[in-house]
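Minutes, project check-in
Item: structure for the 128-residue chain
Input as provided by the requester:
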Amino acid sequence: QVQLVESGGGLVQAGGSLRLSCAASGRTLGSYVMDVMGWFRQAPGKEREFVSAISWSGGNTYFHDSVKGRFTISRDNTKNTVYLQMNSLKPEDTAVYYCAAARPYRRSYRYTSAYDYWGQGTQVTVSS
């Protein structure tokens, strides 16, 4: 069984930065069931949406258009941790952010259905 625990959320002013971490346990981060790691977010009253994803090697990264150029994703397989660096934050980035793990060879990693394991989420609030 895989456990994912997010941390690093909080309250920040617009234009500020936060770094989210996702610590994995139960399996090593480079294992088959955690080949691709993703971040999603869900604002009140809205569906959970894709933010970013990263392949096992870190060589392939994917971003929602709304965060391109502001967010970066990275992973340290030796520490079983995935990171989401969020810069130039905007009030519309306010949401609960979730970490998720997926097996390889999915058609797309931009959908929640591609992921098998999820964390409990961490709240990010950006004030204007």
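Outcome recorded: The CA atoms of residues 9 and 73 lie 15 Å apart.
No further action items on this chain.
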